[in-house]
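Our consortium's second objective concerns turning raw sequence data into structural hypotheses that experimental partners can test. To show how far this objective has progressed, the report includes one record in full. It was chosen at random from the queue rather than selected for favorable results. The single chain below, 92 residues long, was entered without modification.
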Amino acid sequence: MRTTITGTPGFLRLLEDAEGRIKAPTDIASKLDPNGIHVCHLHAPLDEGVVRAQWLIATESETVAIPVWMDNGVEAWAAYTVQHVPGGVADA
């Protein structure tokens, strides 16, 4: 199984890209764990060129990941996310 992830620098870029879109989180950039890994729980194409995703974000003050919805352009999605394969082996 593959999981889509990004680090805090990539997540901050995705936040910038989300500005002006329907799902554009606000007031969370300062709460992010600077060394955090943020996991995409689910994502799907929304409109042509837009991906809507639910992220589980790591913050400095919480011990449990916080769910956040965000819309991004496919270019930003491709540039600032990676596919992680647990154990280094893709499932069939």
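The partners drew two points from this record. The chain has one domain: 3-86. Residues 23 and 70 are 5 Å apart (CA to CA). Both points have been shared with the crystallography group to help prioritize constructs.
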